[in-house]
Structures are given as C-alpha cells and as structure tokens.
C-alpha cells in the first residue's frame, strides 16, 4: 500500500508539473482528430488570419478598445479579440488554441486583472507552448505591461517571460503614448 501511495503521489506531482503541456497536447490532438489543418502549411509559412491575438482580462477591455482603434484603425493590423472573434458555441479552450494558431503573435496585456484570471493564464501558457513546440522557438509572445504589479504578486511563469523577452510599458503621458503605439506596431513586424 505504501508503494501505491508513493506512485499516486508521484503521478499526481508529474501531472501537476506538466499540466500546461498536457492541456496543450490534449487540445492539439483533439483539434487534429476533428479535422484541424495546420495554419502553417509547407507552401505558405506566413498564412495567418491575424497579425496578433490579444490576451487580456475583461476588466481591461477599455485599453483593448483603444488598442483596436490605434492598431487596426490607424495602422491596419488585424487583431484577434476574444469578445469579438471567438466562435460562439465552441469550447473556450478550443477557441483559444485556434486563435493562437491563426495569429502570428500573441500580445499579453499584463495587469493585476490578467494575473487573477485563470483563462488569461491559460492563454499565456498555451502561447508559450505554441512558441516552443509548434513554431520551433520562434518569437511569438509579446508582453505589454498595462498596469504596475508588485513583484511579489507576479507568478513565476510570468516572471520567466519578463526575464526572457522584451516588453513595453504603457506610459501615462501623451508623448509616451504616441511612442508606445509606434513601438508596439514595430514589435509586431
């Protein structure tokens, strides 16, 4: 009985440790089983429906609407926004995987609201898995620090991304705001 308990604890620990990878592979396998075709065919390596998928918390929608105006309206970038572009009736997790697959980049709007949302964290982890396993470590993920978060409240998985990648901080002043949108546009291409 001690051996069974040990095996149970070990298995539980491994499943917990690799939960994001397991979820990613589960949904990718499920998508392929239901007729999913890879967005990146051998003939066309840049056949994406969207330039970027925007991962954000619902409470940050006002900022995302400003982003839509600045990037789609002014700069002609195609954004995938979940409240607008997800297919109604589909599983949320499948919508997320499909959106990330069909987008060249994933922009994470990092805020205290983002960290508190399980779906936002799921989107971040799926984008990381897409970057590692499907796109051969191609730079897919981009962070926008929208609101300041105390360092002690930032999960380690996000700290890893912050330390590994460049990111933009949303400024408070008008001049910085103009530069911010230009830099974000530049980061997408």
What does this structure look like?
The protein has 189 residues and is an alpha/beta fold. It has one domain: 3-Layer(aba) Sandwich (Rossmann fold), CATH 3.40.50.10140. It contains 9 helices and 5 strands; from the N terminus they run H-H-E-H-E-H-H-E-H-H-E-H-E-H. Helix 8 links the parallel strand 4 and strand 5. The radius of gyration is 18 Å and the shape is globular. About 5% of the residues have low confidence.
Record the SSE blueprint.
Blueprint lengths: L1 H16 L1 H15 L16 E6 L5 H14 L4 E3 H4 L6 H10 L1 E8 L1 H5 L1 H17 L6 E5 L10 H9 L2 E3 L4 H15 L1
Parallel strand pairs: 1-2, 1-3, 3-4, 4-5
Helix pairs in contact: 2-7, 5-7
In short:
This protein has 189 residues and is α/β, with parallel strands linked by helices. The protein contains nine helices and five strands.
